[in-house]
Every structure is written in structure tokens, then in C-alpha cells.
Amino acid sequence: MSNIALPSIRRQLLTITMSLMLIITFFTYIIANNYSKSAAKLSYDRLLASAALQIFENIHIDYHEIIVDLPSATFETLSMASTDRLVYQITQNKGGHLTGYKELYTLITDKAGNNWQRSEYDPRDNLQIKFWEGHYKGENYRFIMLSDKLYEVGKAFDINILIGQTTQARDQLAYEMNLKVLQMVTLIFVIAIVLILLGVRQILQPIYAINRKIRRRSPMDLRPIDMSIPKEMADLIATINHFMAQLEVSLDHLKRFTGEVAHQIRTPLAGLKSQAQNAMEETDSKIRTEQLKRVLYSTDLLDSTVTQLLNQATLAHRFHSQPFITLSLPELVKSVCRDVAVSAIQRGVTITYQGEENLMIKGDAFALSQMLRNILENAIKFSPTDKEINVSTQLHSTELGYIARLCVADQGVGVPNNEKHHVFERFYKSKGDPRAGSGLGLSIAKEVAEHHNATIQLLDNTPSGLIFEINFKLMLTEGEQ
Q1: What is the pTM of this model?
Q2: Residue limits of the Histidine kinase domain (predicted)?
Q3: What is the 3-state secondary structure (H, E, C) of 392-429?
Q4: Mean pLDDT for the chain?
């Protein structure tokens, strides 16, 4: 099982969305709280401004005397807040106190001129109206100061109206509005959480469905996943289906290969057992010697088959794990020729080499060596005594660019045209030819060539024999390094 290094997608989605919701809820509450305080202040400021205007409108001059007629409706409106107290003072700049709480202005702390605040509501632009927060006899008040002029023929009187109201009612209104906002935000947050949980569950349903669909399958069920999925998961499903298709092909190849291997190994083992039994029962020494030679031949064939199978398994692993490197094709060819030289001498066959020296290709040196070794061993096996095997490397120009060509030409009996396309098949052997080996060598050579994107073909040699021609894409020459 794979290590689970990251939190689940569900947890990550919930963490991100919850964090965003908390941030949004916090700032929403802050904005709503500020708005509720501002709305409560504005509402009561309007009442104070309206009261000050009504009082000013009921002040008149009679025979050079300022008459103040306080409207009862004004104080009734302001006294609707039963928890609040009102104080007021009306003064004239030159005449001093007119009515109300005498010396009220002088007893206010934090009074006008220190922390005045312009109200959001200014009913008349030509009036001088100012609001501020202050303390009077130990209590918090909201004050309004209205200043204007009264005119009489040839004379003007400066009137100042000061009204103060305690802040309990407006604070209570702000608190109630804030509480309503908090309740609403909390409700919205809870609903949002529920919707987020449902939404995340719905979003992850396709993943759960794919998990259930794959889990219910048998190990051998490699059919493509066919179901409705979101567009964002199309690539994932395509990748899974592609992997399953590759796995199915690999399993099919493995089944066929296992069957063929079992057959190819069973045959020499059966022959080996039969010949050994016959040799044990045979009394004629000459016949026994021939039977023992056949036992050795079957043993050599079995050894060759097992060796080639191990080589093929090694190469199959390297095909998926070994990166290509830049290598010299002539140096690799000469190295393999030296390795098989002893075997060729024992058969009375000469190996010659000629060709370019600066041909660089990209590939797996081990795999390419196995390919060339199999081709050379096949050529040695089918070459008559005192014949040559010519190996060459050449630079060729084609329509698609330069290629490096490797040729192995022998002077054996050759292969009929109707059999040439079977030569590279796994376990293929020429019928009636006692020199036939395991039938794996040339199939391995073809697999290596295809892995290197090279082409391999079988041509007739003159006057007899075969030419193995392998064309590689030229990657680099020593002069270009």
C-alpha cells in the first residue's frame, strides 16, 4: 500500500471552505456591527437635530426681548426612550443664559471644542450644528449644539441651543441590532456549513464511485472504466484505462510466453529423459555412445533455452528502467566481435570488421551487445567451415537524415523467402535443421532493435548466405561533441 502523506481531499476542501467562510463571516459581522452602531447613532442624532430645530423655530423677539416658547411635543419625542435623561440650555452670546440648565455647558467634560464630531445628518446647511460625546455629572451624553441668528429691525441676536441626551437607549438599539445581525450571520454560517458538507460530498461522489467500481472487480477484469464523470476527471480515467489496457496486453503476452516456455522446456526434458533411459538399458556400447551424445545435445539445447529466457527477462526489465546513453557503435561492435571470436575459431569461421569509426548513437550498451551477440552466434552456427562473417558499420544519408547502419553478412545456406518473415518470431526453428537452437536469439535481437527505434531486416547475400541490416538514428558524432 502507498503511504498517505497528505490529508484527504475531503478534509482539504472542508478546511479551505471553512476557513474562507470564517473569514467572510468575521468581516461581515464587523461591517454589520459598525453599521448597526452608525444607524443607531444616526437615528437618535436626527431626533436631537429635529428637537433643536423645533426649539429654534419657537424662539422669537418681542420688543427687543427674546421669548422662548418650548414646544412640549419636542420633549415628548425625546422622552420616548424611558431610560434616557435630557438636559438643555439656551443662551444668547451677549445676553447669557435664557433658559434650561444654567451653566450646563461649563459643567460638560470632553465638551465642544475638544472632541467634536460632525454628524452624518445635517438638516440645514446654513445652520451651525455640531454633535459630540461628553460627560455630565458622571454619565455619558450625546450633545448637540445649534447656533443661528434671530433678526430684528437693525439688530441681530446670536442664539445657541444645547441639548444633551444620555446614550443608554441608542446603545441598547445598537446592541439589539448587533444581536440580530449576529443571529443572522450565525444562521447563514450554519446553513453554509451544511451546504458545504453536502457539496463536498457530492463533488467527491465520482471518486467514491470509481473506487467502488474498481474494488468490486475481479483481479482479471481489466475492462475500461465506462461511467459518467466530471470533465476534470476525464484525464485520470483515460490514464487508468490506458494503464489497464497495457496491463491486459502484458498479461496476454505473459500467458502466451509462459505457455510457449513450458512447451519449449518440456520437449528437451522429455527427450533427455527418454534418451537417458534408453542409454541405461542399452548393452551395445556404440549405440549407447550415440544415445549419450543426444543426451548432451538435449542438455545443451535446454541450457541455451534457459540462458536466452534469462537474458530476455533481464532485457525486459532494462527496457523499463535503464536510460539511454551516448555510445560509440563501432567500439561496441568490435567489443562483441572479440567476445565471440573464440567460438568462431572453434567452428573454423573468420570474423572481419570494417567501417566508420565516428558513429555515435544513443542506447543501452548491454542490450545492444546482446542483440549483436545473438546475431553473430546465429551466423557462426550456420556458416560452413573456412568461411567469413563480415561485420560493418557505415554512415548513410536518407530523406529523413543520416543513419548509422550495422550489417552482419554470413556465407551460410541462407533462409528461403517464405520463411524470412518467421525468423524473428519467438521459438521459431527451421524445420529439419539439426543446428536449430532455442528459437529465441533473433526474436530478442528484434525486440532490442525496436526498443532503440531501429529497423532490422533480413537480406540475401551473394552468392549465398544472409545479411542482417540494422539502421539506427544517428545521434552524435565525435566531431560534434
Answers
A1: 0.53
A2: 260-476
A3: EEEEEEECCEEEEEEEEECCCCCCCHHHHCCCCCCCCC
A4: 81
